[in-house]
Amino acid sequence: MRPVDAADSFLLVLLPRAMREGLDIVVEGELSSQLYYNVTQYYLAFLRTLEAARKPIAIVARRLTTRTHGGAGVFTGFSAGVDSFATILSHTKDVPPEFRVTHLLFNNVGSHGQTGNDQQIFEERYRRLESRAMGLPFLPVTSNLDEVMRSKFEKTHTIRNCATALLFQNACAKFLYSSAVHYRDAFVNETEYMGFSDAVGVALLSTETTQCISAGGQFTRFEKTELIADEPATFDTLDVCVKPKAGVVNCSTCWKCLRTQLTLEIAGKLDNYNRAFDLAAYRRVRDLFIALVLKESSLLNKEIAEQIARRNFAVPPVARIMRRAPERLLQDLIAMQSRPEPYAKQLYWRLVSRKSAAR
Questions:
Q1: Is residue 202 predicted with pLDDT exceeding 80?
Q2: DSSP labels for 225-256?
Q3: Which residues pair with 212 in a beta bridge?
Q4: pLDDT band at residue 288, thresholds of 50, 70 and 90?
Q5: Quick one: which of 53, 57, 106, 139 has the most CB atoms within 10 Å?
Q6: How many CB atoms lie within 10 A of CB 58?
Q7: 91 and 136, same domain (yes or no)
Q8: Tell me, what's the pLDDT at 127?
Q9: Do 275 and 154 sit in the same domain of this protein?
Q10: β-strand 172-178 against 138-142: which pairing, if any?
Q11: CA dist., res. 259 & res. 290, Å (int)
């Protein structure tokens, strides 16, 4: 599939750096009139709201156009994570035909690391997922835009991925960008994570041909996990890990793996995922992680704690005791108990015994 001959994607990629350095942008190529309007009237102010250090700039467009590129497909990114699976599964049958997913994108635009070995990681992940793309065309896209943008992925991920989708306007009528944030938690203000503003910002990146849609904000993380938990395609493919090991999909003991496994357990679906996770490793630290969740120190932990209470999920005695421990201590204990060395187990039980005795 050949990229479309338009400057839309390139304008978006240049915005964060141009605003950081206070440089105006002159676009000589053909530019969507709708995108130009959205960016100059709204999106520049939107980006400055997210980061006040960004400077006002001017954008000069030499060749505005309202022509369309003929795209008819519905694209979305596929990482095999909870968000991407939820977007695909919620856009397969119970939506009008023109909103059903037809193509999957797999982008190398920063999510595979920004340390120099991202291309290797990207290629390895693509090979692993290629045969598991639910029968849909699975398009790999690699780019050097990270070198151009020179900004943190978390602060610009929406721009990066929407800009990539706009390369394919000759095939893409709608781009569903999977949001990780529920509407109740969304906001537009200073933040290190751009996803909080997706409910507002994504639509502003649309053109006459491609409608950019923020997908998934209607679901909580728990609801998304339940939505995908009966889909066999996810049982050995679900990939949520932030610390992947060689040859293993999920490490099973990082905070994201633990959160997902506990959610699946509360929903009664954990055993379906014994090929995606090392359930023995999870169970070594399960009680400690439940204690950490019950402290409700993050929005997602609070959501899980609410489900524990609502569903009368059995909280183990160790978790009830250890929830009073400092959060940092719990995190350290989880890290140690994740390793099966005897000293870690001995230290863990010694601390638990002391807590019980003090009580």
A1: yes
A2: HHHHTT-GGGTTT----SS--TT-S--S-SHH
A3: 175
A4: very high
A5: 106
A6: 11
A7: yes
A8: 85
A9: no
A10: unpaired
A11: 9
Instruction: Provide the domain count of the chain.
Output: 2
61 shares a domain with 183: yes
Full DSSP string of 293-358: HHT--SHHHHHHHHHHHHTT----HHHHHHTTS-HHHHHHHHHHHTS--HHHHHHHHHHHHHHHHH
Q: Tell me the sheet residues that pair with 61.
A: 27
> What does the pLDDT read at residue 34?
98
Directed axis angle between helix 8-21 and helix 153-165, to 10°?
160
277 and 336 housed in the same domain: yes
Spatial CA neighbour of 334 closest among 277, 295, 285: 285
- Do residues 71 and 204 share a domain? yes
Show the domain range for 297: 240-354
Q: Is the pLDDT of residue 356 over 90?
A: no
Spatial separation of the C-alpha atoms in residues 357 and 213, rounded to whole Å: 55
Nearest partner of 74 among 245, 209, 244, judged by Cα:
209
pLDDT score of 346: 58
Q: How far is Cα of residue 120 from the mean position of the Cα atoms in its chain?
A: 20
Please give the DSSP secondary-structure letter assigned to residue 282. Answer: H
**What gap in Å lies between CA 272 and CA 235, rounded to an integer?**
6
pLDDT of residue 152: 87
* Mean pLDDT calculated for residue range 93-111: 90
